[in-house]
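Researcher: I'd like a structural prediction for the single chain below. Treat it as a standalone chain; there are no partners to consider.
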Amino acid sequence: MNPLNSLLLTLINALQMVINNYALTIILFTILIKLAVMPLNLKSRRSTMRMSAVQPQMKALQEKYKDDQEKLSQKMQELYRKEGVSPMGGCLPMIISMFILFAMFYALRTFANEQLVVQFLTFFHKPEIDPTTFTDSFLWIRNLWMPDSPFATYLPDVQSLQLIEFDVWNRVSAELAASGVIPEALNFADRNAAMAFVNEVAAPFIASEAYAPYIAAVPGLSNLSILGIIRFTIYQAGNGWFVLPLLSVGTQVLMQKLTMQQNDQMAQQGKTMIYVMTFMSLYFCAIYNSAFALYWVVSNIYAIVEQIAFDRYFKQQDRKAAKAEEVGI
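Model: Treating it as a single chain, here is the predicted structure.
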């Protein structure tokens, strides 16, 4: 995953240099990735529609040879060859999409960690400046590298800093020192050294008068719990309104329902997948950075538009083919 992770980060940085807005960069990058795999999706959708068209014949064969699995397999293969379809024809784009999804998760998590280090170290060494000048906002989201949620601070807190690897601290601080933003680079030998810095240096600063107002909870709404299991705090300067996580759920359900309408076999087997993917979308988009949630939502919206467009295109092609057949062409 590392080479692909590095490639995605390089491409995102290249676009960012041109656009100079991380949210727009991620939106454009998502669309470009989707356009790149569109030919595979087009071929896959045609294969899926053909598979749906031969479902009645498949069911007839399954009923006729239900007591002879070897004969059934032979007849099914003959049907596939005759109709020019493959039961696995629609799988490749799905596999590629999932691979890209996880690659983007790792890439944007890496990028988010780097940006959080930049933000914390900049404010740590220059607490007099307005932090909104170095956070990347987007519409209702104060900081693209923290979750879109009123239950998340918009400046990095102790918990988010504890998740950052020591080599990220070293690399980013060296770049900041070289550019004169901070006086000297950090040089952690291992993760334990980084954790000691967070707990012994960062945590007191985060609790100080300079930083604490930006991560202050709404009075009476700190350390709340649901059934004593899920604990959360509502912050005065929360990072968002939970819009992207909710949009990810809505678009995920709609996208999968559109997909299953075009494949009877998938519709029979796909209810569990809807629940799984819906939970995944809510969990990842609520817990991790808004940049990844934005990628997920834009990716889903693009997929919905693409499915509708493909469906209309294929119907138009089928009408043309039927009309040509009527006139003997």
